[in-house]
Design a protein that fits this description.
Layout lengths: L2 E3 L2 E3 L7 E3 L5 E3 H8 L7 E3 L6 E11 L3 H12 L4 E4 L16 E3 L12 H12 L7 E4 L5 E6 L2 H14 L3 E3 L3 E8 L2 E8 L4 E11 L5 H5 L20 E4 L3 H5 L3 H14 L9 E3 L6 E3 L11 H25 L7 E5 L19 H6 L6 E5 L3 E4 L7 E4 L7 E4 L11 E3 L8 H7 L2 H19 L11 H10 L7
Parallel strand pairs: 6-7, 6-14, 7-11, 14-23
Antiparallel strand pairs: 1-2, 3-4, 5-6, 8-10, 9-10, 12-13, 13-14, 15-17, 15-18, 16-17, 19-22, 20-21
The protein binds flavin-adenine dinucleotide (FAD).
The site of flavin-adenine dinucleotide has 37 residues, from helix 2, strand 8, strand 12 and helix 11.
Length: 480
């Protein structure tokens, strides 16, 4: 028999499937489901075998709550689309928080032309208002290059993202991972999500796979780019935090002394790479260090798990070395480990266009330019291959990203953004930083919302002039 609340239809569970209430009282599972999911006209809870599946319908479904997915979901909701953001962790940010990267780099050209704005700037402004981010500044990279950045506190970022998405509004589903994908021809119709409570089926007019690992596209049978000729997967890094640090002593250390200490660490094996690169946690006496270097095979789950352990092992060894040898660090302790290994590189989808290094270097302008970037090519090499390839394109150089690089071949209502972008290995090594990922996210979210509203989700049918106009109105930079 159906139990019908005002607008929520629930099938009762078999008598033996009950949840325990807080006071030890036993309540039917349906009672708890109704408390957790307030009734909404578009909800439908149904029992499709075991376990229970709750269905929700949206205009746009974004999978992956990293900085690209967050920017996509915010932009979609700001366009008026009902939007769901699905994240497997219990917090947003992806590499920004789970990886504790600690700095957003590459907002402008070396000549200080700002090429990342829009929703990325909105996120940073909200972060700065809470004291969770530094002002925009510059630093010298381990390669000796000057780079611009905003340092931030990953913990405050989690809270600020919660607030921004709640205000948008975006429905956020945490601790939800892809269970299944329902595809019909060139369309994705729904994703089924594993959550701690029930299975959740989310239908949408359009979908954005911002999971970095391209979890949805992988299950839906998308075509991925084969590795380029000489491509190696970039190593992963487990960030760690030290504090308290005497930043006056550390920052004023002369280059020669610092290089000598780093060389000693490298020779002893305590430092996996010739760097003591760090981002200061704003308003604090601690910093996140980007030093560890772990080779990974992203396709091998057991190897990935072993890599997490190796990252932590390297972090402890590097922390001990810095505390013992680096002026300014002598009173510090290893205060935090990033929750997860930061994975730079995995799959890239084959899109309608594959962005190349040559196009980035030439500053190719596309009719469907929907985002820009200025960060140089920055490839971390696996152990034994030396350090980094770092290639700047020119003083006031920036490059364009076409919508086609966000549109996977073979699908009509799906976009990607961030790590999944359709680009060669070298081009990806420039596009991969977070400000550019957010710019791509804004483009994908706006396109998905416009597609959902009037084009039945077909992202290629969105009028380009309208999309570009909406992006510019929302503050995005699409070229001079
Ligand atoms: C060690 C390291 C250092 C870096 N340094 C910098 C730096 O200094 N400055 C900078 O700007 N950039 C830096 N980068 C690059 C940058 O951090 C990433 O490229 C960028 O954050 C990618 O964003 P994204 O949203 O595309 O992907 P991610 O941040 O990877 O987000 C993907 C999200 O999807 C979720 N997800 C994955 N699979 C599923 C699933 N099946 N179901 C549900 N959710 C799922 C993940 O949990 C994650 O939250 C660094 C990267 C690394 C790894």
């Amino acid at each position: 028999m159906f139990i019908k609340s005002s607008n929520l239809l629930i099938l009762p569970l078999p008598a033996d499937r009950y949840h325990r209430g807080y006071g030890g009282m036993r309540e039917p599972a349906s009672y708890w489901r109704r408390r957790v999911f307030p009734s909404r006209g578009r909800d439908r809870a149904l029992q499709s075998g075991n376990p229970m599946t709750l269905t929700r319908n949206y205009d746009v479904v974004v999978i992956g709550g990293g900085m690209a997915g967050v920017a996509a979901a915010l932009s979609s909701a700001r366009e008026g689309a009902s939007t769901l953001l699905v994240e497997r962790n219990a917090f947003l940010g992806g590499a920004a928080t789970a990886g504790s990267v600690g700095q957003f780099v590459g907002w402008e050209t070396s000549a200080a032309r700002r090429v990342i704005a829009g929703v990325a700037a909105d996120i940073v402004a909200a972060l700065q208002e809470t004291g969770g981010a530094s002002s925009h500044g510059h630093f010298t990279m381990s390669t000796g290059h000057r780079m611009d950045r905003v340092e931030y506190d990953p913990e405050i970022l989690k809270i600020v993202l919660d607030q921004l998405l709640t205000a948008a509004p975006v429905d956020v589903l945490f601790q939800a991972a892809i269970h299944n994908v329902s595809r019909s021809g060139r369309r994705i119709e729904a994703v089924v999500l594993d959550t701690p409570a029930t299975l959740v089926e989310a239908t949408g007019h359009s979908f954005i796979d911002a999971s970095g690992d391209l979890a949805v596209l992988s299950k839906a049978g998308a075509v991925f780019l084969p590795p380029d000729g000489n491509e190696n997967v970039q190593p992963a890094t487990l960030m760690f935090a030290l504090g308290p640090i005497d930043f006056e002593a550390l920052d004023n250390l002369d280059r020669e002394t610092r290089d000598r200490i780093i060389a000693k660490g490298l020779a002893s094996g305590a430092l996996p790479r010739a760097s003591a690169h760090r981002s200061r946690v704003p308003g604090s006496d601690s910093a996140w260090f980007n030093i560890t270097r772990v080779e990974i095979d992203p396709d091998d789950a057991f190897a990935l798990s072993a890599a997490q352990m190796e990252g932590r092992r390297q972090a402890l060894a590097a922390a001990r070395f810095l505390i013992a040898e680096m002026p300014g660090c002598e009173n510090a302790r290893l205060s935090r480990l990033a929750p997860q290994l930061g994975v730079r590189d995995f799959r890239r989808v084959k899109g309608d266009h594959v962005l190349t290094r040559a196009e980035l270097a030439a500053g190719t302008v596309f009719e469907d330019t929907v985002a820009c970037g200025a960060y140089p090519i920055d490839i971390h090499h696996p152990a034994g291959e030396g350090g980094l390839t770092f290639e700047e394109f020119g003083e006031d150089h920036y490059y364009a990203i076409p919508l086609r690089a966000l549109v996977p071949v073979g699908f009509s209502n799906v976009l990607t953004a961030g790590r999944g972008v359709s680009a060669t290995h070298e081009a990806f090594a420039a596009l991969r930083v977070m400000p550019t990922a957010m710019a791509m996210g804004q483009a994908a979210g706006t396109a998905a919302a416009l597609a959902a509203n009037g084009a039945a989700g077909d992202v290629r049918s969105v009028p380009m002039a309208t999309l570009r106009q909406r992006l510019v109105e929302a503050g995005a930079f699409l070229g001079a």
